[in-house]
Amino acid sequence: MTLLETRTLTKNFGGVRAVAGLDLAMTEGEVLGLIGPNGAGKTTVFNLLSGFLVPDEGDVRFRGRSLRGLKPHTICRLGLARTFQIVRPFPRLSVLDNVMVGALVRHPEAAAARARARAVVERLGLGHKASHPAVGLTLPERKRLELARAVATEPTLLLLDEVMAGLNATETAALVAVIGEIHRAGVSVLLIEHNMRAVMALSHRIVVLNFGEVVAEGPPAAVASHPRVIEAYLGEDHAGAAPSR
Amino acid sequence: MTRVAVVAAVIVLVALPLAPSLFGSYAVTLFTLIFFYAFLGQAWNIVGGYAGQLSAGHAAFLGIGAYTAAVLSVEKGLTPWIGMFVGGALAALLGALVGFLGFRFGLRGFYFVLLTVAFAEICRIVASNTEAIGGAVGYYITFTGDPRQLQFQDARAYYYLALVLMLAVTALVGVLERGRFGVYLSAIREDESASEALGVDTFRYKMLAMVLSSFLTGIGGAFYAFYVFSLQPASVFGIPLSVEIIIRAIVGGAGTVLGPILGSFILSPLAELARYYFAQSGWHGAHLVVYGLLLIAVVLFLPEGAYPRLARLVRRRVAGAA
Predict the structure, then answer these.
(1) Number of domains in chain A
(2) pTM for this predicted structure
(3) Which CATH number fits the domain that encloses residue B36?
(4) How close B141 comes to chain A (CA, Å)?
(5) Which of A23, A103, A219, B33 could form a disulfide with A152 if both were Cys (CB 3.0 to 4.6 A apart)?
């Protein structure tokens, strides 16, 4: 069954066409990787899907319903949760309270939300930091917190924007395992990722974006050897594929 | 920590209610002011401290509550016990208008500060030019000493009234802080976009915070009117009053339950003493200089306010003793 569908989704910033008539479809239970060089429009797509940007043209349909005109908080409530590429923890709130904000969407009672948040915090391996303010976390911990908050909203579809960026190989492997676990628990995942090992390991299917358009699409192995994909990445220096922070 | 809580509870529930019988009249006045400004600081704390929306025009809400209760009492004979809620409701209405304009159009930081100041100034100018409520000369309430008109012969009545106001709003904030409302407000203060992404209707919660805060401040205005018995537009709608309200919460610790109370216990006596001594030597307004210096010191050395620092010290002390 189709979970998410975009039709001729378009967004311009001044003269720059960030997303150009994008048609994208995801089925329920899928893990879809969205890759492409820097500036390809990946994060703009996320902002359009999650309601942070309004498309100039086209529409997003989620579980058969148009998201046109909906605010981000409503979209979250419908079951589409996102993380931010540059993590945005609530610095002075504890890790548990950070996650509780997400849990309150489904559990309006503070006690129930706190219990639910505690379970998510434990599951994502942040239990020992639950009462610490988020400001003191290391980068890998912040990435996990960002993920934990989104998971706590109990989404049907999770949009992950470069959650691996800045992590070393061990940390990446650990986070890949965590995301795999979240997926097995019944959450569909749309993944923006520069870390090829992670995106290959997790995705059922990969869509390659360049200049706001799909240049290739298919199973991970086929996409990796696709000439247009190699072309899209060529000419980019390696900074393009390196972690952004 | 529990021992500290017990000591605090004893002070609040036994010592403060009994204190007036031991105090001189000056101390009763001083404590009344401490409680009252703690109440105002706490009301501001909801929108300014927890939700992080820096209203610098809370005097407008106090002034509306004060004028409404006073005019209804003097002109219509309506008891301020009811009039205070009418005043609170009108203040909340203005709060909703200011909030709507500010939040709907996404004014943040300095722009929101300026919007709130502008509304307070508009109120001041309108009041100064409305002869029906005394214009710039002010509005005066004739003292009758009738408790039904919120007037008391005995200054201790105001002491208790201010104490109840402070305790009630602090209890309210304490309850709200632990629930969804409080958690959402803190999240909005910390990062609005992240809150939206996590399902928080930021506009709605900011509006609720603004309306509740302005309503409570309006109720405070009724107390002010019947404590002072004269209302001048420049003093009840003026910027200095807004600053008096904000500074208590910030010095004590904005976004904490006990911050505004601590801030008032630090600042209100200081303000009274400074006002008294500087006025004697002819240095009117010099207490504002003292405020300015204190605010600079707090921003530099205690950016979270005095309460978080104090709480950490106490916790360390208790942990050390155990």
Answers:
(1) 1
(2) 0.90
(3) 1.10.3470
(4) 46
(5) A103
